[in-house]
């Protein structure tokens, strides 16, 4: 089931998950600084998010320009738990409501915050909240046969609407400051390097798990039907497949995966705020997948890691150049490497070996 | 259950029954009071000039388009106007398009496998694996469509004629009770055309087949009852020789 490209990637991920902790915690002189651990952990969450988008875009042709919303919802569910974990250690030392609620004069927790002091409930909401949104959104969109650019536009509108909603203080999610000042997770101090290492390793595991799950789904007969939907939707209907059910399944699964990525991301960066819902964020996810290679899973993950790392370096060195560099890269890859870096690499390799190249995925 | 109305002779057990069906698009009557009866196992050719409503008729039968008025009954009991494409396909209506549409990034084998009659729900397809009866059915279909040597090739790499055959193979894999075939001979060589006619004739009997076609040679080779459509309604019906001698039909086909 696991092909060569995924085998190589998973092996690399394993090495990373061993070398980084050892380099940070065990070796003298700390060759891997703690800030780098959190940075790598963040990239791995992005990679999982990219795999989630590749599932719907690369395999089913649903170009979601709103996947950041599912990521952010998973992040908020985790953030709510982390806020409750603070307890009475906040600035206002109020044990019953978080600081931001004290600040806007709320005396009691709103009902939708109930139970978030239990990690199990928060963890369940990490997948339930994005999954439910995707299910309801997809139910209406796919049933009315909204496809192509129209679907992309309404996914974009969805994330934009959520951003505006979460900006409002009376939504009860901290307004434009979002949720922050986290102290610990399950009793582990978030400021400790060991906790950061643990979260990074968990992110690597989640990415590996996400990749294997995505590979299993896309390799199944259902995965083949998804490709049918991508390439010839109407024909698939006439074969008796209920296309909207397939889209709903993969869209919901993908949203849940994005939610997990967001939940792992929040404790590592220490904040979640409405800017995660911004349309530009969701578009960046699409760029990662397009660059890495759509419909390759591993390519999506690699694309996310490489672009995010480049962003860190470039925004540090030449802040004003970053957006131009990203735009140029995207245009270049679209024009020169329509199958993305991984796709182009494999086509070249198979051409060298004399076997016919993989057929290019249709838009 | 329903006695045929609208001047049609009563048929014992029609497979498909259209009565007084109309559908207009922006004021243009694509189908205008169309009535048609297809018996079990019948082979029927539908001919007509461009814009006669052949494609709209097939869209209505398969649930892609809803008629404005009229009745479409499947085996006298099921109202097809309430069903969508997937539901009519599950009932046993298979459709082949004029332009061959196969799944180009799947292999020939996968194309046939996905078309095989089976539970089509996402849950079932997520867990289903290949089985021995399935493999032997695929072998049969590959032999029938003479694509055995291309089993593991991507369907996108096949020639036009091979794609037509693959699509016919996919139709048969669905085990439909009625096949709607839109211009199967388009783009085929003469030899392939005759083979296709033979194939369709051998399919009919066991299943009902409606063939929409322009190519008169092909229709002649089918040797079946012919329905001539014109302006969304039936202009004539009968043997090809009889029909093509009718002045109305000649006028429609040869211009006025």
Biggest chain contact: A-B, 26 and 32 residues
Indicate the percent of residues in helices of chain A.
Answer: 55-70%
Q: In terms of per-residue confidence, which ranges of chain B show pLDDT below 50 for 5 or more consecutive residues?
A: 1-7
* CATH class term of the domain at 14-103 and 176-254 in chain B: Alpha Beta
What percent of the residues of chain B sit in helical stretches (DSSP H or I)?
Answer: 25-40%
Q: Supply the number of helical segments of chain A.
A: 14
- Tertiary shape of chain A: globular
Kindly report the CATH topology of the domain at 14-103 and 176-254 in chain B.
Rossmann fold
List keywords for this structure.
heterodimer, A: 363 residues, two-stranded antiparallel sheet, 70% helix, globular, disordered C terminus, B: 256 residues, alpha/beta, Rossmann fold, four-stranded antiparallel sheet, disordered N terminus
Overview of the structural elements:
The complex is a heterodimer of chains A (363) and B (256). Chain A contains 14 helices and 4 strands. With 363 residues, chain A is mainly α. In chain A, a hairpin with a 2-residue loop joins strand 2 and strand 3. The model of chain A is unreliable at 357-363 (pLDDT under 50). With 256 residues, chain B is an alpha/beta fold. Chain B has a domain at 14-103 and 176-254: P-loop containing nucleotide triphosphate hydrolases (Rossmann fold). Chain B has 10 helices and 10 strands. The longest helix of chain B has 14 residues, at 160-173. Residues 1-7 of chain B have low confidence and may be disordered. The A-B interface holds A 217, 220-222, 224-225, 227-228, 231-232, 234-235, 237-243, 245-246, 249, 356, 359, 361-362 and B 62, 84-86, 89-90, 94-95, 97, 101-106, 110, 113-115, 120-122, 125-129, 154, 156-157, 170, 174.
